[in-house]
TrEMBL record:
A GO term, aspect molecular function: tRNA-uridine 2-sulfurtransferase activity
Domain tRNA-specific 2-thiouridylase MnmA-like central: 202-266
Recorded family membership: Belongs to the MnmA/TRMU family.
Record bears the keyword Transmembrane: no
Keywords linked to the UniProt accession: ATP-binding, Cytoplasm, Disulfide bond, Nucleotide-binding, RNA-binding, Transferase, tRNA processing, tRNA-binding
Regions that span the bilayer: none
Binding residues annotated for ATP, in chain numbering: 6-13, 32, 125
Main subcellular localisation: cytoplasm
Purpose of the protein: Catalyzes the 2-thiolation of uridine at the wobble position (U34) of tRNA, leading to the formation of s(2)U34.
Protein's name in the database: tRNA-specific 2-thiouridylase MnmA
Domain tRNA-specific 2-thiouridylase MnmA-like C-terminal: 280-351
Annotated source species: Blastococcus deserti
Amino acid sequence: MRVLAAMSGGVDSAVAAALAVDAGHDVTGVHLALSPDRQMLRSGARGCCSVEDAHDARRVADELGIPFYVWDLAERFTEDVVDDFVAEYAAGRTPNPCLRCNEKIKFSAVLDRALGLGFDAVVTGHHARLDGGELRRSVDAGKDQSYVLGVLTADQLAGAMFPLGSMTKDRVRAIAAERGFAVATKPDSHDICFIPDGDTRGFLARRLGSLPGPVVDAATGRQVGEHDGTYGFTVGQRRGLGVAAGDQRPRYVLGIEPVTRTVTVGTADLAGIPAVRTGVPTWTAAAPRLPLAAQVQVRAHAAPVHCRISDGGDGGLVIEFAEQQRGVAPGQSAVLYEPDAVRGDRVMGQAAVRAASRADEPLTR
């Protein structure tokens, strides 16, 4: 097959490209330039897609003897990922930019262009498995990235290759070292690639400005603090609230109202979420019949929990958790997995959380 290898400059994508070559595919490497100021996108292990990363990717391609190109997708990345990230926080929601990048960039813009150029598939260094066209978790649970791939459709999965999903990260680094790749010991990228200093609140403040408002205690209705912008908070947050509630019990963010600029906080007993409403789901295969039992994961590194999924009556879903969850915020993706022990690593699909209810509140639309 003619395969396009997406090469970020890291060890995972380097080994994925090498394995595609070893499998006998006709491989071409491509590095995505995602920022107009690429010198600013890496700080040690933070960030990615810098000029340094492009050079690392080109060096691996040269060692593999494959053609290599750089595709400038900075404008589309800014519109579909960065601007979306800012807009979601401004609206009181908590997005996952890695999931959005996979959806809009790597498996939309890149895959569409690759197919248009006559390639059969795109190979990436994601830690996830494809088994008979079904998306499954990586065998390395600590590196599993199936959550951020849960937005992909069956057609997109048909054009994807994930050769690392059946091995551990230690094995990936060992393969790179055996081949003499300089990236064998390169640190993994952490946090959000377009916020290399890790200061999300500062990044948003520079774009949205100061938008002060009250912090209100849910139990008493009293104002217990002030803030400079609701975008500095996410549901479930405990640290950095700056509140004086009158007792020593920790407070958590329970809700964010960007119109009135109100952040509502409360004690742990109010932070549990029994159910959520979502937007329209995407499925990795044919849409299942509802209602159904499943497992759901609401954050990239959260533990999956059993749930019941039903039709929300408006195109979305109602997801009822078997155990109340904390830190479930509008904007997050609820990624659904099969519920049984044998096939519980198969990704069924995902839907964005639109509304979450506390135990003392009705679940509204």
